Each structure stands twice: as structure tokens, then as C-alpha cells.
Amino acid sequence: MNIRTLTLSLMLAGLSAGALAQPTAKEVYAADTKKAAARYAEDKKLCSEEKDSGARMQCQRDAKAEYDKALAAAKSHLNAANPKAVACNECGRVVGVNVVEKKGEGSAVGVIAGGVAGALLGNQVGGGSGKKLATIAGAAGGAYAGNKVEEHMKTTKQWHVKVQFDNGTQGDFTFAKDPGFANGDLVKETNHTVVRR
């Protein structure tokens, strides 16, 4: 094989490789947006030649609508060609699940019921002024105990789920029942909560 044949072979290989090379999705998008901008500029120039102001305004609105449509089509083609470029801002991964007990709150019912029960028990002790003191002490102790019993009865569990979103942000979500999530589960935020995806 002589040098001329080798050079010709390399040139043909380069031409065929160049012919096969397709523009990237970003290059096509850049070309489409440039073309849309040029067309919009030409349309605005034509609109400025309208004599009637109403017709001129309508022409400009139509030109803008066509420009917006061309940009949307270019963006749609870019996203279709490069699906990874479309980030799912609502998508994420569970990075932590903690179960905590939420302390219940006592109410007047617990205090009153405990106070009455304590007073009745205190009234059974002693006699005279000691009976009065025992009744008062029983009422106070019963009120405190009734409040604590009610708090304990109203104690609930909560599941706190921490999510790392694909867009880099984090979110915390609270559930009254076990959502069944574990670290690494793929989730999606919807209606201020997360669900499996």
C-alpha cells in the first residue's frame, strides 16, 4: 500500500465518520432556539410595518405566541433526546426513619376526676381537722395523678421519615401510623407527604 492510497483511505474514513456524526441534543436545541429568535425578529419587523395600531399589536401577539411555541417545541425535543436532563424535583430516597413517642396532654377532665377520687380516698383517713387535711391532700395528689394518667393514656407514636431529594434538598415527614419505609426506599412527594415510587 503506497502513501497515496493510505492518505485516500484515511480521508475517506474521516469523511464517513464526519457524515455519521450526529449533532448533540444541546447543539440541536441551540440551533432551534437561534432559528426561533431570528424568525421572531423578522416577524416583529413585519409587524412594525402595519399601519393600524390594533393590527400591529395583534401581529406582535401572534409573533410572540409563535416564538413561545417554537421554544417549547425545542425544549420538548431536548428533553426527549436527553431524559436524564429532566430532574424529578419531587423524587428522592429515604435516608432515615425514627419512631418517637409523642407525649399526650392532660385536660381538665383528668385533673377533676383525679381530684375527686383523691378527695374521696383522703376523706376516709383520720378524723376531725386531720380528716380535712387528708381530704385536701388526697384531692391535690389525685388531681396530679389523674393528669399524669391521662397524659400516659394519650401518648402516641409518630414516625419521622427523612428524605434526600434528587435535586439536593432534604425533607422531613411525620406519620401517625407506620408508613413501612426503610433507608434507601425510593419515594416521591405528593400532597405534602411521600409515597413509594
UniProtKB/TrEMBL annotation:
Pfam families: Rick_17kDa_Anti. It comes from the Bacteria. It is found in: Membrane. Residues 1-21 form the signal peptide. One of its GO terms (cellular component) is outer membrane. Transmembrane segments: none annotated. Residues 110-150 form the Glycine zipper 2TM domain. Keywords: Membrane, Signal. This is Glycine zipper 2TM domain-containing protein. It comes from Pseudoduganella rivuli.
